[in-house]
Design brief:
mainly beta, Jelly Rolls, 11-stranded mixed β-sheet, 5 helices
Length: about 375
């Protein structure tokens, strides 16, 4: 009996010794190993891709999307995360970036969580290609479009593109990188992207000359939603309908209180982290950085002039517990009547929310409206 006890005691001791380094490492936590980049650590997901590759093994690696047709781009079961989207498009129509509509649904929801023209989703809000790079979106030479917003889902993900134009899209190339994983944490939120436009914005008249807007009543609305989550940012295209600077519009963000904004900025050029009219009528200079930019500036401060801007809140996403409405004045105290085309990007605890009806195609095409 004593020999048996001695044997099991030695076996337990050996097992303890074998487990000691791992146990010690676990006890110390990951902080001790923060010098290691995460890509050298063991991962517990499976990398996947769905693309427009030629199913026959040939080289026709694209979808053809007839006028009025919808092409499915992704159908995946969960849990998982979309990590990267890449498109490039060959189309006859000059306005295909406005004609093609991108939609995505999470976990079988009846309403889409992404609904926006393809160009607007990638920050090309005026339907024209412009090369730029930011933290989450980019457009490269060769007209390739890239998105790096992570898009988690627990049960399923579906993504489509619909051609609302009159011409066939000859070649729609798509690569969507995603991963499957054992589970998502309970606090993982769903990605949303909502398109809105005011074309034109309606200028507010001030008969007494006192331009005051403390409540944000007539502001352009980027997004409005109920639930819990956080705001990641916006893209905005502006087509100028009259000479002059289109800015000076304060950003006003309503957080959990519909009666008054919790966050008020100092002007739209400041919200997009530029300054001084982006350089003015004759000195405006396009710029594109990780968290902010105005990569397209054409005919600054002249009728028909165009601006495409973006601002990310990656350093400090704006959190909300019950309600969010992100808005911006069009001109000081909404005194200008330019065309605004925007997309707002945020995360929320519900897989879908109420979106306004998507503007008809004819109204989405940027045109000067005197």
């Amino acid at each position: 009996m004593n020999d048996r006890r001695g044997f099991f005691h030695k076996l337990a001791s050996l097992a303890g010794l074998a487990a000691t380094p791992a146990a010690q490492a676990q006890g110390r936590g990951d902080n001790e190993f923060k010098f290691l980049p995460k890509y050298v650590r063991s991962q517990n997901y499976k990398s996947l891709k769905q693309s427009s590759h030629d199913r026959t093994g040939g080289n026709r690696d694209f979808f053809t999307v007839p006028a009025g047709a919808t092409q499915e781009l992704l159908q995946a079961g969960g849990p998982g995360v979309i990590t990267h989207i890449w498109f490039t498009i060959a189309a006859q129509s000059r306005m295909h970036l406005k004609e093609l509509v991108l939609r995505a649904w999470w976990d079988g929801a009846s309403k889409p969580s992404i609904e926006t023209p393809v160009g607007d989703f990638f920050g090309l809000n005026l339907g024209e290609y412009s090369i730029y790079q930011s933290e989450y979106l980019a457009c490269s030479p060769g007209r390739s479009l890239n998105c790096y917003f992570a898009m988690p889902y627990r049960k399923s993900a579906r993504m489509t593109v619909t051609n609302e134009g009159k011409d066939e899209v000859r070649a729609f190339y798509s690569n969507i990188d995603y991963l499957s994983c054992p589970a998502l944490p309970p606090d993982a939120l769903y990605f949303h992207a909502q398109y809105r436009q005011n074309a034109p914005c309606v200028p507010v008249q001030y008969p007494d000359g006192r331009k005051l807007n403390p409540t944000g009543k007539d502001n352009h609305v980027y997004a409005e939603t109920r639930g819990r989550g956080h705001l990641m940012g916006v893209t905005l295209g502006v087509l100028i309908n009259a000479d002059g600077w289109m800015g000076e519009g304060d950003d006003m963000i309503f957080v959990d209180d519909e009666s008054k904004p919790a966050i008020i900025g100092t002007g739209s050029e400041d919200y997009f982290l530029g300054s001084w009219n982006f350089g003015g009528r004759d000195g405006a200079t396009p710029f594109a950085h990780s968290q902010y930019g105005a990569p397209q500036i054409i005919m600054a401060e002249r009728t028909g002039g165009r601006y495409c801007c973006y601002r990310w809140h990656g350093d400090n996403p704006v959190t909300f517990s019950r309600y969010l409405k992100h808005t911006m004045e069009h001109g000081h105290a909404n005194d200008r009547g330019d065309n605004f085309y925007s997309v707002c990007y945020w995360y929320q605890n519900e897989p879908s929310t109420d979106f306004p009806l998507l503007a008809p195609l004819d109204q989405r095409i940027p045109r000067v409206r005197a």
